[in-house]
Amino acid sequence: STPGARSSQALLAAVVCATFSVATSASPGSGGSAANNVEPPEKVVNPGESLSIPCFLETPGGSVQWMRNGHPVVLDVGSGGAGGASRRQWNISRDGTAALTITQVTRADDGLWECREFADDDSVRRVTKVLKLVVTGAPEEPFLTLGGERLHEGARITIQEHEEAEVGCVARRAVPAVRHMHWLLGESNLTASSQLFVEFSPQEDSYTTRSLLSLNASRDLHGLRLSCHVYHVSWPTSTAVAATLDVLYIPSFSISREPGFGFPILEKMPVSLHCAVDANPPCAPRWLKDDGPPPVPQSPDGFLNFSAIERQHAGWYRCAAVHRLGTFASYGYFLNVRYGPEIVEQPPSQVAADFGGPVQLECKADGKPPPSYCWTRVRSGRLESMAAESSLVLDPVLYSDAGSYQCTATNHLGWKEERARTRDILLTISGRPDIKALNKTLMAIVGKPVRISVLVCANPPPTRAYWIVRRLLLSPGEAALTHYVAHNYSSADTPFCRTTSLEIRSVHPEDAGEILFVARNPKGIDDAAIILNVTHQASFSFTEENSFAEKPEVNWMLAAWMSLTLAASGRLRSGAS
């Protein structure tokens, strides 16, 4: 055929391919060569762009046929024809290069382009895979899904705390496929935690890309913006689709106090408690005291204000809230109100006790913090500390324990010490006499005076009292001749007690030995023995102590005195009857 005829035939055909690899062979009986199996380069163009597809000829000016996806391409109206400019046109240059120029590329141009060169006998000389043309198809606007359900733009993703949600990002009808989707949660990039899936739809001749992201909901994610950024070659920049996380979580409570924690709360001072609740959806706080209503009204914003707090306001306080997920409450907070000590029960002003028996004095005080106790006794115008307990126990009680007692309760409010005292308690002792020798052993010098003293305690006072010395009985205030003088009683510091003494004006050697003082009252009898050792001034000699059994004269005197006292007591009993 002539070159003009071959040109007319080339204007009527081209090659298009809908698959990614095509093997083209010469027509049967044509004697042509097999197709070139070398994979052609890929070129991606957008619809509306222009494209030139070259084909290198072995024989300059030879015949060429274009194939797309293994099918001849019917070209548009010839170049310069009456129908105007064609969208697809080709030409062969003098250097042997043939080119197909496509203006206003459309999706119909997508595919594998081949160049078929014919010999002079119209047989196929060579088939060349020239280009794999990809004409982009912009995807539809991407959208998010939750559990497979499509979400509208700007939706809220509602999920409960600690639950897991699968959020999807979908881009449909894209050519080529979307290969990149980036996830952002706030400022955090979560792309590495997502999975990308690509599907091809033969019916739509396009791709659908899905990116799935699993979210573990926590309250710190609430309100954050979750966005999916989709990248495609047909778009100059990425396209984003977003939603806001709505994480439902149970209330958490924050309790504050004015004055601040660590500062002691004193009675009568102003105090404010505040409860802040963090929850989604929000809920109002409600104060409880010991699981009941609070003692003062609560403000709507969670304040509990005490203008002058009282001790009865102390107790366990909790903040509660009713939420769509249930009813919740904070841990308990103990509001401790401090106040100074107070004596809650005054002891009796007078307490009578039996000599030798037990006696217990009680002190009962209230205070926060609990007070410490101190028992004191007034003696000779001074306070004597007796005990540091709430109870004072005297066992056995002695005449020396008689007197005025007082209990002091003390605590500290901050740096200030607070005290409360009981009234004075007068302790009286009654019982048999209690005789104490001021010196149980004395040393006397012959010819010199000596004084022997005893402390006599008794309530009621003694009805009989005697000094027994040698063969004599001397009552206090009585003198026998000029040798012995029994001095009268004199007062002592101890209640119910007096002192008395026996004076020997000039000691004789026969005064050595035991001297006895005996006293009796209606409740009993007691005695005290004093050992008098006599010596000469130049040399010392000691008289051994003798018991009553070893001194017959003392035994005789004591027996006589006992007979007198027993007879007297018998008369007293008969008179009383």
From TrEMBL:
<dbReference type="InterPro" id="IPR013783">
    <property type="entry name" value="Ig-like_fold"/>
</dbReference>
<dbReference type="InterPro" id="IPR036179">
    <property type="entry name" value="Ig-like_dom_sf"/>
</dbReference>
<dbReference type="GO" id="GO:0050839">
    <property type="term" value="F:cell adhesion molecule binding"/>
</dbReference>
<feature type="domain" description="Ig-like">
    <location>
        <begin position="28"/>
        <end position="116"/>
    </location>
</feature>
<feature type="domain" description="Ig-like">
    <location>
        <begin position="251"/>
        <end position="323"/>
    </location>
</feature>
<dbReference type="InterPro" id="IPR003598">
    <property type="entry name" value="Ig_sub2"/>
</dbReference>
<dbReference type="GO" id="GO:0098609">
    <property type="term" value="P:cell-cell adhesion"/>
</dbReference>
<keyword id="KW-0393">Immunoglobulin domain</keyword>
<dbReference type="Pfam" id="PF13927">
    <property type="entry name" value="Ig_3"/>
</dbReference>
<dbReference type="Pfam" id="PF08205">
    <property type="entry name" value="C2-set_2"/>
</dbReference>
<dbReference type="InterPro" id="IPR003599">
    <property type="entry name" value="Ig_sub"/>
</dbReference>
<keyword id="KW-1015">Disulfide bond</keyword>
<dbReference type="GO" id="GO:0005911">
    <property type="term" value="C:cell-cell junction"/>
</dbReference>
<dbReference type="InterPro" id="IPR051275">
    <property type="entry name" value="Cell_adhesion_signaling"/>
</dbReference>
<keyword id="KW-0325">Glycoprotein</keyword>
<dbReference type="InterPro" id="IPR007110">
    <property type="entry name" value="Ig-like_dom"/>
</dbReference>
<keyword id="KW-0472">Membrane</keyword>
<dbReference type="GO" id="GO:0005886">
    <property type="term" value="C:plasma membrane"/>
</dbReference>
<feature type="domain" description="Ig-like">
    <location>
        <begin position="341"/>
        <end position="428"/>
    </location>
</feature>
<keyword id="KW-0732">Signal</keyword>
<feature type="signal peptide">
    <location>
        <begin position="1"/>
        <end position="25"/>
    </location>
</feature>
<dbReference type="InterPro" id="IPR013162">
    <property type="entry name" value="CD80_C2-set"/>
</dbReference>
<protein>
    <recommendedName>
        <fullName>Ig-like domain-containing protein</fullName>
    </recommendedName>
</protein>
